[in-house]
Amino acid sequence: MAERMLKFTTVARKTPEKRAASERNGDFHEIYADFIDAKATEQASRCSQCGVPFCQTHCPLHNNIPDWLRMTAEGRIQEAYELSQATSSMPEVCGRICPQDRLCEGNCVIEQSGHGTVTIGSVERYLTDKAWEMGWVKPLVAKADRGQSVAVIGAGPAGLSAAERLREEGYAVTVYDRHDRAGGLLIYGIPGFKLEKEVVERRTQRLADGGVVFKLGFEVGRDATLQQLRDQHDAVLIAVGVYAARDLTAPGSGSQGVVPALDYLIASNRKTLGDEVPAYDSGELNAEGKDVVVVGGGDTAMDCVRTAIRQGATSVTCLYRRDKANMPGSLREVANAEEEGVTFEWLAAPRALQGDAEAVTGVRAIRMRLGAPDASGRQTPEEIDGGDFDRPAQLVVKALGFEPENLPQLWSAPDLKTTRWGTVKADVRHQMTNLDGVFAAGDIVRGASLVVWAIKDGRDAADAMHRYLMTKTGAAALIAAE
Description:
Helix content is 36%, strand content 18%. It is an alpha/beta fold. It has 3 domains: 2-134, Alpha-helical ferredoxin (Fumarate Reductase Iron-sulfur Protein, Chain B, domain 2, Orthogonal Bundle), CATH 1.10.1060; 149-242 and 404-481, 3-Layer(bba) Sandwich (FAD/NAD(P)-binding domain); 248-401, FAD/NAD(P)-binding domain (3-Layer(bba) Sandwich), CATH 3.50.50. Mean pLDDT is 94; it is low at 475-482.
């Protein structure tokens, strides 16, 4: 009812309680508490129900945010959950890790008017966590068996989202992944203080219970070629993400103690999952007792600096060559890192790594300024003469972004077309590659991006694959009739 809404002028914005930095720095549990029912209802009632919902249009999944906020405010929690999950395969994941400050909440009308945005992400998380608690999350039920099978290469958010929709349509779905757990970067890349692993595991278990087959520890190129998977299945989806780290081009970057961000995060996540991790135990991928420098300004860099704090680093410094306003990562994550004791050196870049081949001992950096815009419109960082400074470091983490691996070479698939950036070339209309029946989705197509975009791409690819396989069924039926 209308009187339950539009309370943004009388009800202040309130986020869920956040654990104090002194408490959370000692573990990898999520830092935000859950909303209680009354608080979720109260905060949802702040929505202005505007005629043009910019929150919805700026959500990659175009979630029907105003309507499920209204339902939450009215106490219709199960209906609100059902509406939120209708357009998203993992609403509780997006509620936790999406950069809402850059997407839905950043474009909230009442935020623009100075009243503080609706806490959309926290309500989204609340709805699905409540649904799991109350048993409203229904098992995955497939339609009648279509007699066709699909291979999904990659068990990250794009692959899992596609697998869910394809299985619902009655296809036999097999998900292949190189890791020993499904979830991709949701399991091994994103730390538990942002996304506890049981949140992902219950999603993958739901898929397995619904008939999706997972072949883990399976590496395309080693255990099978792309062509062999094509021969076994009626369609194939490439959803492997981008894993090759961009390198640090500075003297000394090959020294021991200079490590890629993903190697560092995977080791930490494996350790928290209870695995044996020799590189962690030896100290190679462990920040305990060390001065740590992380190079980069994206969300991966924020994950690294906050992980180092929890591992007991002596000091943690983040170097980023642009200023805070131009960093690609979430400002919310920067604020959390600052609370936890991370030092940020804005407008600073590494010039050389000190020490020798056996051990890095420090980073010589240089101050930068922003000059003329480049072709993309962003101001180009320029070195300031005489702006050198040193930071001690026994561990340097390279968080400069990710590039695609050379899939045509790795998979013995020289005919698979890629772009000049190395991403797989897929038709924007139907997401099929140049190979018949082979589709691609997620970061391997668009480049390193957000989980929410991967979920959207996976869902779109599944719909395109369904249309493609339906045409094959039709052709087969015509042949049989003749």
